[in-house]
Predict the structure.
Amino acid sequence: MTAATPVSPIPVAPSGLTDRARRFVEVDGICVPSQGIGKYRERWMEHGIPAVEIDRAAAFQDRWGGLALPPAPFYEGGPRILDADCPESSAAEGWSFPAGECRVSMAYGFMIGSDGSFGIDAYLWTPLHASTDGWVESLALAAHAGRRATTVTKIKGKAVESLDLVGFEPVPEVQGVTDTWWRGKDSLIALYRGEAVGMNAPQCLEAHVYGGLDEWGLHGG
């Protein structure tokens, strides 16, 4: 797809998402024209970027490029638009590529890691979710829980470490790595550890507790 190609503003969700995430993408998301990165292939290869890494970025762009989603509840809203760019190499972490520009000026960027994980490139590379699908699932779950919870409590800093997760189970579809979601009998908990780990800043730990959820609130989608 090139920037000149007409694009419907109504997105079609990629396959493999839960029904909840599919509805979130198609109802709350917007498609905008995005760059086609195929035109950069030869130039990037001339600069030593492996074809396989360009192909990874192109596959991301085909699946997610141009999708604008509502702001994330953490990370200053997340990427403005999901959009791949030139892959870059790190001796420690291998090849990665940008996942989209930040909504505001920040001390880190959103990246797709060498294993396909979605994360932030801060003081340390920090994978948040095992894939971009997991990131989108987490956004959809936050929107879903936020609409149905009777209370939403934000816990910050050291208090996060004392959260009692006995009786909770991980929510698998968010594919949590550094960030995780947990489901209890009437509540969901989102643990945002990425900034604390990636920026070596424990004070940035944050948890959002969605309380008073019924069965649909807990499992809908």
Observations:
- DSSP finds six helices and twelve strands in the chain.
- The mean pLDDT is 94.
- Residues 132-148 form the longest helix (17 residues).
- The two ends are 31 Å apart (CA to CA).
